[in-house]
Amino acid sequence: MRIEAATVDEYLHQVPQERKETLTALRKTILDNLPQGFEERMNYGMPSYVVPHALYPKGYHCDPELPLPFLSFASQKNFVALYHMGLYASEEAMLWFTSSWDATLWGKLDMGKSCIRFKKMDQIPLQTIGDLVSRMSVMDWVGLYERAFRSPKP
Q1: Distance in angstroms (rounded) separating the CA atoms of residues 20 and 83
Q2: Percentage of residues in the chain with pLDDT exceeding 90?
Q3: What pLDDT score was predicted for residue 94?
Q4: Average pLDDT over residues 89-109
Q5: CATH number, domain containing residue 16
Q6: Residues 27, 12 contacting (CB under 8 angstroms)
Q7: pLDDT tens digits, residue range 9-58?
Q8: C-alpha span between 49 and 41 (Å, rounded)
Q9: Which of 25, 22, 2 is CA-nearest to residue 14?
C-alpha cells in the first residue's frame, strides 16, 4: 500500500481509519524517545527518522543524495511495519530486542533483518519500541553504519 504524501502529517491523514490511532501513537512514541540529532521526514515514501546531511554529509551509500536512514514505519497492505536499520547492523541491538519481546503479551515476533511486522494493531509494544529507539544516539548509529556498511570488504 503506497501512500503519496509530502509530510508525515499528510501520510497519517491518509492511512486507513482503523490504523490512524495506532500509527499516531507509534509516531509519538518514536518522537518522545528519539535521541537529539535525528530528523523526521518522508523518505522512501514512509515517515522516517534520518541523520541529516548536516551531521553526516556522506549520506546513504545506496544514494548519497539521501540522508542516512535510521528508522521508518509504514502502513502496508496486511500489517504495520517498523524498519530499524540498527537492528540489521548490530547483533547486540538485535539480541536486546528479541530478548525484550514478550510473546505472551504481543504474540510471535514477526520480523526480517530490519523489519518488524505488526498484524494486530493492539499488539504493538510501544514501551519496548520507545526503549529500542532511545538506545542508539546519532553518533552511535553513524559509527555502527560506518563499520557495518562502509568499511572495505576483505
Answers
A1: 18
A2: 81
A3: 93
A4: 88
A5: 3.90.1150.200
A6: yes
A7: 999 999 999 999 999 999 999 999 999 999 999 999 999 999 999 999 99
A8: 6
A9: 2
Q: Is 1 domain-assigned?
A: no
Give the pLDDT confidence score for residue 151 in this predicted structure: 57
Place of cell 523526521: 40
Establish if 81 belongs to a structural domain.
yes
The domain of 133 spans 8-150
What element of type H or E holds 104? helix 103-106
On whether residue 116 sits in a domain, the answer given is yes
How deeply is 37 buried, as exposed, middle or buried, from its count of CB atoms within 10 A (0-12, 13-18, 19+)?
middle
21 within some domain: yes
CA dihedral 15, 46, 148, 116 (to 10 degrees): 10
Please check the confidence at residue 122 and state whether its pLDDT lies above 90. Answer: no
Q: Quick one: 94 exposed, middle or buried, by C-beta within 10 A (0-12, 13-18, 19+)?
A: middle
- What is the Cα–Cα distance from 97 to 108, expressed in whole angstroms? 13
According to the model, what pLDDT value does residue 21 have?
A: 95
Contact 144, 151 (CB under 8 A): no
The rounded distance, in Å, linking the Cα atoms of 49 and 47 is 7
Report how many domains make up the chain.
Answer: 1
